[in-house]
Amino acid sequence: MKFTLSWLKDHLETTATAADVVAAMTMAGLEVEHVTDPATKLAAFTVAKIVEAVQHPNADRLRVCQVDTVDGMKEIVCGAPNARAGLTTIYAPIGAYVPGLGVTLVEKPVRGVVSNGMLCSASELEAASESDGIMELPDDLAVGTPAATALGLEAVIDFEVTPNRPDWLGVAGIARDLAAAGVGTLKDLSIAPVAGAFPCPITVKVDGEACPVFAGRLIKGVRNGPSPQWLQDRLLAIGLRPISALVDITNLVSYDRARPLHVYDAAKLSGTEISTRMGRHGQHGDEHLIALDGKTYELTPDMCAIADAAGERPIGLGGVMGGESTGCSDETTDVFVESAWFEPIRIAQTGRTTGINSDAQYRFARTVDTGSVVPGVELATKLILELCGGEPSEIVVAGEAPAAPTGFAFEPDYVEQLSGLAISPDRTRQILADLGFDIVLGSPWTVTPPTFRRDVAGKADLVEEVARIAGYGALPSTPLPEAPRAVGGILTPKQARARAARRALAAAGYAEALTWSFTNQKTATLFGGGAAELILANPIASELDCMRPSLLPNLIEAAGRNARQGFPDVALFEIGPTFHGDRPQDQRTVVAAILVPRAPRGWDKAKQDDVFTMKADLLALLEELGAPVDKLQTAQGSASSWWHPGRSARLQLGPKAVMAEFGELHPAVLKALDVSGPVYGFEITLEAIPEPKKKAIKSRAAFSPSPLMPLTRDFAFLVEKTKAAGDLQKAALGADKALITAARVFDVYEGPGVPEGFKSIALEIVVQPREATLTDADIEALSAKIVAAAEKAGGKLRS
């Protein structure tokens, strides 16, 4: 919605500048998008007078002018044919940017004569589309007058109209709000009726479903033609093209009062009746309308049609656009002025179906004031008589407008209760009255919204009106009471672990991904989800219709997108929720990571990352999170179905206490997601990590490393082929916790020398003496403990 300051002042008595108006609009809740101020753009341009103009000595079509300017007398070379002594025009100094030419003036000779500026045409100032010479202004303009003032140019304010405020689609509605905000005094907006000189010979008939109320009158003897300059300037300022006086009047009323109108050439009407009905399609033959935009539209039973010839011929799309067959021209002498009210949803649907977004459709789709039907005819009549002459008939009205809003109870104290603003009842009453509300004082008050404010339906809406006019800047600044700080910090253990996991994985070279908490049902089913209760009723996209049961599918698809963009070697992680039901307890917080090793091709066969790399990163992360890593069991072959059955496992404290799963993703799952393998990954459920036990705070002794060197011993054990190496490793570590600091698997062998169904696992045991150097007997005793512990775990020392 656009308007100019002078237009606003037709309805608002104020001395406010454009900047003042914009500031007040912003504080009153009107979102200003842009202000076009010619005074700023043309600040360097001023009025000047040519004192002398002589022929250029070296050019037939140039003249050398002595010009009286705001900067004193200047010699300027000008090629305009109308450059002459005594002419008042516009002067641009050296350094000025000329918008119509897109150049900045510099001092340079023109055919040997230096021009100290420029005399401008209207097109060079973008005040006209084209011009034949420099501007010719009235002689009484003083030298130095700003160009914007001399040309009558003013600021144009453009702001966004929210759907609930259709009254802002008229300048009068904006003036009303600004007057309530104290910017000025609202002028009388009432419209005086124009008496009819004769009964209207045209009758109107309405179909209540198509159009609840329809009013109009005939005006005889009008003279159509170009609008007066003030009306053309007003429309041009807001981006509308002047057409003719009759059409321009309807556009003016639409923007001035948010009241769309239409004018028919009465001589082109068939019959003496205008009616509204639904469009006909199929039953009586398909209907078409050639509209004023020259396009042909098919009418459907959902559209409101305006018809003549006893309802047979469509002559317009009600509330959207008139028909070409009854349009006004310069030969028009008798007109019928229409002012109606159309159902907003129907008009919005018609606009979407036809693709028409006219000024009328835009306003009717947002609800036009139901009380403006007859006043709209009166205002249009007044303007037509003033600009085109003629004689009006009496007004005819068919149908009945929707009922006005009803009043409801309101306590003025509710303003402070809901908003926190301490506003007196008198000020509250004044604001509501200025906004057009009818108030009956009492206990409580009875407040009735005006017909142009159907968005107000309850007392909370009234509080919003009072608060925005009084100013949200008046809200008291009350700091919240200081909350005592928790001794252990403000993060919960789960939050602290999520933060630690994020830092640890980033330090390990993984990049964090943030993906949707949704996926499609087919993908969710691959990862154990897709239940009916997790399907979204209103998904943001058709392929995101299900809550995710795992973080892995979105990470895998992200890796696939990276690969298709030329970055196949990725390591990604994400921390977020997964959903396994529709209850709060079915949501879990998970840390997931994937590794997609794609080393560049080369002759050196460097070892790539694999499932053991993934396991090492997982164990390092669990240790960082405080999980009891030394007590974890590795359960191979019991991982979920989306893992490769022979290359995945679970880490658990027991069969029902699964903490993490890791391994290689199943090839069938990768194929369904269109991602090339192998892909390795893990998922940790943070809720499954036991909370650390609270310990009494003790002073820590200084770190004192053992003065003795550690020693290593290697053992090889025969175990069943299905035995996990981790079980043997864990048994060896527990043989003597005081001396053994590490047990590492450095070889796994199957082949000659090893019985069928068995494998050989080689362990390196790190022994750290503490008190004294170990003797041979001490080492032999320790070795016996290790062998015994391994045998208990199912291993036999290999000879």
Tell the overall outline.
Answer: elongated
SS class:
alpha+beta
The stretches of 5 or more residues where confidence is low (pLDDT under 50) are none
CA-atom Rg in angstroms:
42 Å
Structure write-up:
With 799 residues, the chain is an alpha+beta fold. Helix content is 25%, strand content 26%. The strands form 12 sheets. Strands 30-33-34-38-37-36-35 form a 7-stranded mixed β-sheet, with helices on both faces. A 5-stranded antiparallel β-sheet has the order 6-5-4-7-12.
Short key terms for the protein model shown above:
799 residues, alpha+beta, 20 helices
Quick rundown:
The chain is of the alpha+beta class. The strands form twelve sheets. The protein has a seven-stranded mixed β-sheet, sandwiched between helices.
Write the layout of secondary structure elements.
Blueprint: E1 2-4, H1 5-9, E2 12-13, H2 18-27, E3 31-36, H3 38-41, E4 46-55, E5 63-69, E6 72-78, E7 88-92, E8 97-98, E9 103-104, E10 108-110, E11 113-115, E12 118-120, H4 147-150, E13 156-160, H5 171-180, E14 185-186, E15 203-205, E16 213-220, H6 229-237, H7 245-257, E17 262-265, E18 273-278, E19 287-290, E20 296-299, E21 304-308, E22 313-317, E23 321-322, E24 335-341, H8 344-354, H9 359-364, H10 373-388, E25 391-392, E26 396-399, E27 408-410, H11 414-419, H12 425-434, E28 438-440, E29 445-448, H13 459-470, H14 493-507, E30 511-512, E31 518-519, H15 521-526, E32 546-547, H16 552-564, E33 570-579, E34 587-596, H17 611-624, E35 633-636, E36 643-652, E37 658-665, H18 667-672, E38 680-685, E39 711-720, H19 725-733, E40 740-749, E41 758-767, H20 776-792, E42 796-797
Parallel strand pairs: 15-18, 30-33
Antiparallel strand pairs: 1-13, 2-14, 3-13, 4-5, 4-7, 5-6, 7-12, 8-9, 10-11, 16-24, 16-25, 16-26, 17-24, 18-21, 19-20, 21-22, 22-23, 27-29, 28-29, 31-32, 33-34, 34-38, 35-36, 36-37, 37-38, 39-41, 39-42, 40-41
Helix pairs in contact: 5-12, 6-7, 7-10, 19-20
